[in-house]
User: Fold DUF2851 family protein from Polaribacter haliotis.
Amino acid sequence: MNEDFLHYVWKYKLFSKVDLRTLNNKVLTIIKAGLHNKNAGPDFLNAQLKIENQTWAGNVEIHVKASDWYLHNHETDANYDAVILHVVWENDATIYMKNNQPLPTLVLKDLVNENVLNNYRNLFLTPTSWIPCQNSIKIVDGFTLDNWKERLFFERLERKSEEIKIILEKENNNFEAVLFQLLAKNFGLKVNGDAFLRLAQSIDFSIIQKVSSNENQFSALLFGQAGFLEDKIEDEYHQQLKNEYKYLEHKFKLEFIPKSNFSFFRMRPSNFPTIRIAQLVSLFHEQQSLFSKLINLEELKDFYALFSVDVQSFWKTHYNFESTSKSSHKKLTKSFIDLLIINTVIPLKFLYQKSRGEVNEDSFINILKKIKPEKNSVISKFAEIGINSKNAFETQSLLELKNNYCAPKRCLECAIGKTILNK
Assistant:
């Protein structure tokens, strides 16, 4: 038994209220259970109760054992002077108020429905290999699931937008600069994401704006900052970029990042950091003021068209500076663009619209419903227990569910958990 469950039972009155009485056998009527307090102090504030013929207004404190009142030193805390009812699972001590009268106490142990208790035990006390409700999630109706998925999706967007907001403040609300940093991080994927973000943040965006119209100069800037031009390589293109970077390094007083920050280990050649940098160069060279273009797009095909850029001719026959390879275009794939839309474009657009007080929620859902479901271990596990995803909107919702509700066992705050408990 834990207090969170008792909070839930009290909040939703999941106990017998027939002939409800306090520990000293006085008739108890609950007028208002009170507001659930997530901060310091009593658990429920501004409750209204009737004990016998006297109406009381004040706070309610909840414990597994009555003696927890003394264990938590509430008797010395003035915040608890206005407690009008002590709700406990087990009464193992008499609690006295400052007037030396026993604090009115309600014992829940024999009042909670056995079905609710069994559902609670199945969720919290039965070991599971993955998520608490994996053996019972399928009993939840589709309407509840669909509504909860939408709530989860926007919780995820809110959380991501708050993270982006920190970067935006550092960049003086320059959405173009923030877009460059976020896209750079996503171009690096999981393995090189942090290194790519560090690369983007090592260059003031005003420099990017000055040189991005010249593709060779822009290439020199990014490859030079990433440390890829420090090696001695007998190649005309490499030497050309190296000379150009020396000029830019001196002009803008740049400090490059060691190449060792970028990993090639066990990566497909198409994901080599050299290729991703080359693609990032091409994108911001061809699409000047990229954020201004993205902000007005609503159709998935238009996003694909905007991101459909090709690398410079050198990179069509190379995956690195050292050796040649069979010629290929190395354009961004649709699946990669999908990741950029999911992880960068939509959260940034959401934050932009929110800052202007004009969030179009349906547009975000509609775009993601047209994108194929993401493939990862979490989504595969959900499929194994019968929760399949038709699109990226659903996979994003399930990722939020797993990471921020299932993993920390926030079942009592989850629509799925609540439905299972109340069955």
User: Anything to note?
Assistant: The longest helix spans residues 142-170. Residues 3-112 form one domain. Strands lie at 28-32, 35-36, 44-51, 54-65, 83-90, 105-107. The first strand starts at residue 28 and ends at 32.
